Amino acid sequence: MMASSQPEATNVAAGGHQSLNDGGNSLSFSSVTPQKLPHLTDYLVHLQPRSNPLDQNPFFHPTDGFYLTSSDIILRQVVYDLSATFLSPSSHRAYHRAGPRNQIFFDPSTTKVAIVTCGGLCPGMNTVIRELVIGLWELYGVRQIYGIKAGYRGFYSTDPVELNPKIVHNWHRKGGTVLETSRGGFDLTKIVDAIQHRGFNQVYIIGGDGTMRGAVKIFEEICRRKLYVGVAGIPKTVDNDVGIIDRSFGFQTAVEMAQEAIHAAHVEAESAVNGIGLVKLMGRSTGHIALHATLSSRDVDCCLIPEMEFYLEGKGGLFEFLEKKLRENGHAVLVVAEGSGQDMIPRSDNQREEKDESGNPVFLDVGPWLKSELNKWWARDHPDELFTVKYIDPTYMIRAVPANATDNLYCTLLAHSAIHGVMAGYTGFVSGPINGNYAYIPLEEVAQAKNEVNTMDHKWAWVRSVTNQPDFVRT
Ligand SMILES: Nc1ncnc2c1ncn2[C@@H]1O[C@H](COP(=O)(O)OP(=O)(O)O)[C@@H](O)[C@H]1O
Ligand SMILES: O=P(O)(O)OC[C@H]1O[C@](O)(COP(=O)(O)O)[C@@H](O)[C@@H]1O
Ligand SMILES: [Mg+2]
C-alpha cells in the first residue's frame, strides 16, 4: 500500500464545530490546534511511505480505528472555569495521540536502531530498553538494535552492544540501567558523527531534563545534515521534574520505596522521648517525591520542599512548630527534599560554584545540617530534657530498584508509543502521557518545560491540611 509521500494533513475540525460552551467564550474544535510534530519528510521530501507490517502480524488484527491519524489529538488542558471571561490561546493546545499509523517510513529489514540512557538512575529504565527492543523486533521486524553504553559519551567512546529479545528478556526485573549511564560527555559533533558513521536510522534517548536539552541539539544537527534518522526522547526523572507529561516513570516506585524510610523514622521517633524522625528524600529542585511520600504516609508532621522557603527560629518557624508537636504527641516526623533550605546552609565560595559534570548545581547536604541545627536548638532551649533526632537518608535506595507493576506497564506503553511514532516518520518528539492518554510532544517543548510543585494549588493545600505545618511566612 503506497500512498502519498506526506503524512496525513491535520484536520482537527473533522468532528464538526462542536463547542464546550455556547456562551460568549466557546472552545470549539476548530480553534484546537495540535502542536506541529517534526516529520522526516520535512527535509527528506522524496521519502516514500510503506504499509505498516502490523497488517501482516499474526497477533494483530487491525480493524477500523486501530491506526491513528493526525486528527487524533489530546487536549493539554481538561479543566476549565466556564465562568472565565477569557480563554487563553494555550488553553486550546493539543498534541497528537501516540499509537500505530497505517503507513511507516522505514524498511524494518534495513533499519538500524540506537538506544541510550543518560543522567541519574530511575526505576524502570531497563523496562523501557527491554520494551523498545521487544517492540521493534516483534511488532515491526527490526533486527539491528544496539545499546549505547554509558550515556551520551558512549556514542563516540565505545562500541555499541547488540540487543535482541533473548538478551533483554528479564531486564524489567533489574534496577538501574544495564546499558549504564553517565553525566556530562555531551559533544554534539562527535555524537552526530557517530550516529551518521555507524548508520543508525533511529535513536531512542532515555533521560531527564538535561538529556532532553541535549536531544534537541542532536535532533537539530540531524535535520541540518538532512540525515535519515528519527529521534525520540523518553522522559526519565525520578524527581518528576519534566513538564507537560502527567508524571515520569519510576516516580511511583520511588514514592513507594520512600514509605519504608518514613515508617522507620516514625518508629524511631515514637520510641524515643521527644523523638524526631528526619528523612531526606531526592528532589534536586522539585519536591514531588517528598510531597507524594508525605501524602501517602500520613505519619509526616512537616514536609520541606525546594519550592517553599522555610526558617528555623522565631514565631511561625520550624522549631516553634516542632516544639508544639513534641508537646502534643511526644514525637514528630520531618521529611525534607534534598534541594530544600540550600540558602540557609553555610557554604564556601567554592561550594557556591560547584556543578556536576552535566552542569547541575551540587547541593550541600540538608539532612546532617538540619539534624545538627535541631540538636543545637534543643540543647540551648531545653538543656534538661531528653531529645533525639534519628536521621535517615535513603537517597539511592528509592531509585536503584526495579519498577513496580504500575511503572512497568507505563514503561511498556511509553516505549511502544515511541516506536510507533518513529516508525511513522515523526522525529524530534517525546512520547508521554497527557491527561491519561499517550501523546507525541515536540522535544523542544519538553526540554523547556519544568514541572515544579505549585504551592498555591490544592495539592499543596492538602499537604498543609494533613500536616498542619506552618506556611513559613514571616509576620
Ligand atoms: N543544555 C544541555 N545541552 C546538551 N547536553 C546537555 C545539556 N544539559 C545536560 N546535557 C547532557 O545530558 C546528559 C544528562 O544530563 P543530566 O542533567 O545529568 O541528567 P538528566 O537528563 O537526568 O537531567 C548529560 O550527558 C549531559 O551532559
Ligand atoms: O548522585 P547522582 O547520580 O548525580 O544523582 C543525584 C541526583 O539525581 C537525581 O536523582 C535525579 O537527577 P536527574 O533526573 O536530573 O538525573 C536527583 O534527585 C539527585 O540530586
Ligand atoms: Mg535532571
UniProtKB/TrEMBL annotation:
Keyword Transferase attached: yes
Coiled-coil ranges from the UniProt annotation: none
Enzyme type, top EC level: transferase
Domain Phosphofructokinase: 112-420
List of catalytic residues: 239 (proton acceptor)
Signal peptide (UniProt feature, chain positions): none
Key words, A-Z: Allosteric enzyme, ATP-binding, Cytoplasm, Glycolysis, Kinase, Magnesium, Metal-binding, Nucleotide-binding, Transferase
Residues the entry annotates as binding substrate: 237-239, 282-284, 338, 396-399
Site (Important for substrate specificity): 210
Ligand binding (Mg(2+)): 209
Binding residues annotated for ATP, in chain numbering: 120, 183-184, 208-211
GO BP terms: fructose 6-phosphate metabolic process
Family named by the database record: Belongs to the phosphofructokinase type A (PFKA) family. PPi-dependent PFK group II subfamily. Atypical ATP-dependent clade 'X' sub-subfamily.
Purpose: Catalyzes the phosphorylation of D-fructose 6-phosphate to fructose 1,6-bisphosphate by ATP, the first committing step of glycolysis.
Subunit relationships: Homotetramer.
Protein name, per record: ATP-dependent 6-phosphofructokinase
Lineage: Eukaryota, Viridiplantae, Streptophyta, Embryophyta, Tracheophyta
